[in-house]
């Protein structure tokens, strides 16, 4: 589903930042756009920054359930800084409904990840997809291996190297050899 991203530009509050940029909304089913001005209120301007596909995967339904359980449900926009000095400081990289994917992008620290409230129609679409594709993973208790730990393999070392003592032998086995 194509999702348009709305970004608001407001005047910066410090002398180091001329503008403050914030993702404020999404437009489900939006047409393609590239930083189209939507609204102007004094110095504050809202742009339809870009339209990106919101792709959902059957393997990620657990992540979608997490975001739908959040109040309110959200989508995340990943914005990458551009090298342009003009009015377009970010490139919209991806829009996702998965909080896990958003966290992966946030961990790198190179992208700006913005959380945006999901419109009710989009939340219903994601809920319908999740309900039809989610399969609960059964809990499987981990069993111990049948590996025998009572057998001593002390002092085996590397068989290719001939030497009078074994450098891999523990001090305990050396002590046993001296006392017997």
Automatic annotation (TrEMBL):
Listed Pfam families: DUF3305 (PF11749)
Compositionally skewed regions (Basic and acidic residues) per UniProt: 148-163
Top-level taxonomic group: Bacteria
Chain segments carrying region Disordered: 134-180
Full protein name: DUF3305 domain-containing protein
């Amino acid at each position: 589903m194509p999702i348009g991203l709305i970004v608001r530009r407001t005047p910066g509050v410090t002398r180091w930042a001329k503008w403050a940029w914030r993702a404020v909304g999404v437009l489900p089913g939006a047409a393609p756009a590239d930083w189209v001005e939507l609204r102007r209120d004094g110095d504050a301007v809202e742009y339809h920054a870009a339209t990106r596909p919101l792709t959902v995967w059957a393997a990620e339904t657990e992540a979608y359930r997490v975001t739908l359980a959040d109040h309110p449900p959200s989508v995340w926009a990943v914005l990458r800084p551009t090298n342009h000095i003009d009015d377009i400081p970010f490139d919209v990289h991806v829009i996702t409904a998965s909080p896990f994917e958003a966290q992966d992008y946030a961990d790198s620290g190179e992208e700006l990840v913005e959380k945006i409230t999901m419109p009710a129609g989009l939340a219903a679409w994601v809920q319908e997809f999740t309900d039809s594709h989610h399969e609960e993973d059964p809990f499987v208790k981990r069993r111990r291996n049948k590996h025998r730990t009572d057998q001593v393999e002390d002092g085996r070392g590397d068989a290719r190297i001939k030497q009078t003592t074994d450098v891999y032998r523990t001090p305990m086995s050396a002590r046993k050899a001296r006392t017997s």
